[in-house]
Amino acid sequence: MTLLRAMRFEAQWLRRGLDQWMVLFTVPLFTLIFLLVFDRADRADLQGHAVLAPVLIAQWGMALFVSGEIVDRDRWSGLLELAVAAPAPLEQLLVGRILSVSLVSLFASVEAWTVAALVGVEVVVHHPAMFVAALVLTVLATSGTALIMSCTFVLARTARTFQNSLSYPFYVLGGVVVPVAVLPDWLEPFSRVVYLSWASDLLRDTLVPGPLDDPAVSLMAIAVLGLGGYLVGKWLLGRIVGRVRRMGTLTYR
Amino acid sequence: MTDSIALMAHAVRVGYRDMRVMFTWQTWMLGWFTRVVAQVSFFGLLGLLIGDSEVVQYLIVGNAVMLAAMTAIGVSTTTTWERRAGTLPILLASPSSHVVVFVSRSAVLLVNGVVTSLSAFLVTALIFDITLPMPRTLWIIMLVPLVSFAAYCFGAFLGSFVLRVMEARNVITNIAIFVLMTVTGVNVPVDSLPDPVAAVANVLPVTHGLAAIRGVIDGAAPATVVGEAILELVVGLAWLVVTIPAMWWFAERLRRNGQVEFGDV
What we know:
heterodimer; A: mainly alpha; 13 helices; about 75% helix; B: mainly alpha; about 0% strand
């Protein structure tokens, strides 16, 4: 119940301003850029990459720029004190709100496919059940990872610097457009601990006809890495809230 | 005139101090610079995926130069900084020109943009093993500041709109950046776009400056390069000329309807 209420609370907050939609505003232009680059190179086979990439970018971007700011935002607005004092578990409140943001980020898929359709590109999902399963797990893994961001950004002097620095490096490591296999070999171990790399490979595979290559391994990897992110985030939350309570800086810096 | 120069110098100093709060050398190198190198590499990798070294070079050059514009365009949020600091109403009420303050306060972004762009270009050219013809490529050191200046003037114009809708500052700035990345020849040539889009691109920053830079690298005739560079300068100055009345008009509206308030945005 706490989780659902937290999700509703965040959805209401999202409706209030423009800034939190910034990532979703860029999705159509991202899609267009990728489609134009591949079209100029006469590579129609890469159109699936072009449409899928902005969906993953939106997941990560919203986690960084919206979910990542939740604890910091609550702290500035004086809400964190009340949330910590309330009998509802803080972690559930946060996870619910982050989940809400991740679900809203899925709107990027509507945007990307619409832009593609408008420019006459049709991208077919050949394995719809696996596509949905991979997307649902990606949303959950993003939410788990966003819990880490939300906690660590509180400790940063200027969270925006960290938010900006974690965008493109993870688009590269996550193989959101260019598969990990194309990256230099030495990057692969780093890529494989980023859930996005498994998600992007699997989601791209669902756009290609023919049997899928070990989808269970990819699903498992997304789930394990997402769960790992959640557990680290939970541990960090306990440490950070405990610290700011002890120091009396729960609201004030 | 002397007062305006003093005001400008003071605004530049304030902007520099703002930046020192945002960045230390460590966060600039590990945070910002890592991100921009990753950004240029991200687009360069599209060329690797396509499997064409010319496309790789095209994307690396375009996206490295775009960094100068992307950084400079951040001037559009200067007005928000004034409001956050609670100094916007005071500034609008003072006899000093708020336009001079808004336009010059973020001048440090010009320097940051040029340094960012040139360093990221150098690093990504090494990563992607791009051979640049020397010494003529060194001319880009003169051309990147031009792109940065034109984008700064365009960003200042956007800043006048931000005065009216401050909550949309990041949305306006980001959409502008992505539009430039789409239509000004950063990722695909301007002449491959539909004619009306190409016509709009001709009055936007980056288009001509980037054409001049690509001309230098490709060994175009000096007259062509100089012509494009002059056009980039003209585009920048034109945006600056439009910015002055726009900023004055939007600020005047805020003053008249009482929407200038203290507080966070």
